[in-house]
Design brief:
This protein is α+β, with helices and mostly antiparallel strands and 133 residues long. The chain has helices at residues 6-11, 36-45, 63-71, 86-90, 94-108, 114-119, 123-127, and strands at 17-22, 27-32, 47-49, 55-58, 72-73. A hairpin with a 5-residue loop joins strand 3 and strand 4. Helix 3 crosses helix 5.
Length: 133
Amino acid sequence: MTLLNKDAILSADDRQWEDVEVPEWGGTVRVLGLSGTERNAYQSSLIVIGSNGKPQRVNLEDQLAKLASRTLVGEDFERLFTDKEVKALGKKNGRVLERIAKVAQRLSGLSEDAVEDAAGNSAAAQSGASTSA
């Protein structure tokens, strides 16, 4: 096994993508997994911070559209939708958005509990137990 250095890690092409059939829209879309920074920003966008500066609750409004907008890309791997276009995308078929979101979650390493963990609402997060390095 080869021990990697910083340059090898930073130059590795580790982003995954998948083309997803969307017959409801008449074609195929490309879903790109989130980078670590993008994943954190997505999770943060779902957390409502209280006046005390602490997470108060998870806001699931347009959750599927938020994730889809951040992961739908063109052939050039550039985002198709901006954050300002989430509401418009959110008006599309919820089943289609969920199909795209499930692929995005899998490619990005997002579990169903990931947002609650980020908000500090899960038992594991509260106990401080973690197996990650």
